[in-house]
Design a protein that fits this description.
This protein has 15 helices and 11 strands. It has 450 residues and is an alpha/beta fold. The chain has one domain: P-loop containing nucleotide triphosphate hydrolases (Rossmann fold), CATH 3.40.50. InterPro entries: P-loop_NTPase.
Length: 450
Amino acid sequence: MEPPQPAAAVSQASSHFQLEPIPASVLAEKEACRRDAAAKLGACMTGCAVLDEHVLLGGFERGTVVGISAEDEEMAVQLGLQTLAYSLCHGTVTTGLVVTPKPASVMLAGLRDAVKAELKTRGAQDGRAKPRLRECLEKVMLSCVFDLDGLWEVLADLDRPGGSEAVDQQDEEPPEQEEKAGQEGERATIEVEEIQDSQDDDDDALSPIQSHSSQEQPQPQPHQESRPKQHRPGIILVTHFSSLLTSLFSHREKSAAHSALHLLSSHLRHLSRNLSSSPLIMLLNSTSSPALSGPTTTASSSAPTAASPAKQAPLDPTLRSIFNPPLPPGYGPYSIRRTKPSFGLVFSQLLDLHLLCTHIPRTKSDAEAVVQRLVEDVRMAWVVEVLLDDVGVWEGTRGVRMEREQKWTAVGVEGGRIKGAFEGVETGEDERFASTGEVRVVRGFGGPRV
């Protein structure tokens, strides 16, 4: 009987897959080159000066994964769509992708309103606003998904070589064809494709504009080769992400769900770092809060499955709002806000940058009205703060990077756009905190930083 040779067999099998160690200096140089290239593409601004300049310190950097958690999830959607509309109107990005579990008509209406508001802010007249509106809408792809598997299909199509070539054809549509196709300037011209679980073998259906343009407006092959990278989206919005996570944890075992999210986290970072467009990926999330959180309620009624056993445990520092300090002795449960992002660390592990949008009383008198439960008399403001910043602000030099964690500002929604909440907050450097000092929560917090 011949003796077994397990060691030799293993050595022979693994000899073809040996990984040589890579010096840290090589990885650091590669990362610096990547971030330099992303900086040359330009940051994606929200269009709210106080948020872009004093909280984000220059806007959202390309090639990153950003999460926005909001008490009213529609606030997160509006901030994401406003960022997309601003970037399209100013030419920072050439194409965008919106992935949503909501009906297409709802998202199209929100996108159209966001672009309209941006064009109005830029002073576009009615004669030029309609063609510009149609032009911006034609640059956005929309995919409706119902679970995380559908999201995977959309992301896989982005990483497939030549998977969306027809977007170039749509962007190069002749003016006379555009006029014929868009007699109604306010009618969205985005072709919508719903991606279901049964469409695993339908790879070409993932690009909505592809099916529309490949049939009606074919282009010569030499012309397509002249713009080989334009089809890659510069911004990818995934709306109502908590709905996708709820579905995931409802239909899979906990360990399998966490494994799927770990793979998704790696793939999102791969796309943001390696696609030619260095896309900004935005995941729009809701918040959750215990029943004892008083008048403050959450837009999402479903508590995250993964976080429900730890409701009474202290929040992780990367999930705690600066307006959510630990409960001091002698104070009742209504004296503290306990709002936190839905799914907590399960969600934040996907992100490079995490923003939290919460409602707080606008002034001291409004905070007192909250204590007295005079909810109908309370004026509220939105506070946008940075919970997590793993990447820092890239300045192209070595040394300590500026961090955005715990920076915040107060904003409001006016005329369909997110603006500074107080008069004078966006007028200049000297006045940027002139009114924010009046922002108060129940226990008296206020000022530009806590």
